Amino acid sequence: MKKDVDDYLQEGIYGAKEINPAERKLFLGTLRERVVFVLTKGEVMKAKGKKELEKKILENPEATLLLNGNITFRFFKPYRQLASKHNILYTTVNNRDAKSDYGLVLTYDHAVDYSDEDIILHETNSTKKPPKKNTSFWSKLFGSN
Description:
This protein is an alpha+beta fold.
């Protein structure tokens, strides 16, 4: 495909076209198909998922660790130590405009075949109690569910 003058002008004004920009914002600059493992911001700030991350790092020694720059740097210390211990490259991604729930992403620079269940450690899988059953006023009054 040959670029014309309009393409060059648009690129100069708005920057290079990006494939799946929303997905890239969510996964700290990479695409979902490249992701091996993620932790949410909450999990990172509670220092959760370190064992799971280390397991994924050992299984994927060529991967790179992306750290969400919207989180205070001190929360990443145990994760940076893991990356250094296993000689994994890591970088902080600073994009104040990006709204991502992920605090940490282990990724490749090419597509890999991991399902969502394989990559995501949900806080809901922890030892939290299940939510209380929501009963209405009328069921409490008349004793029916």
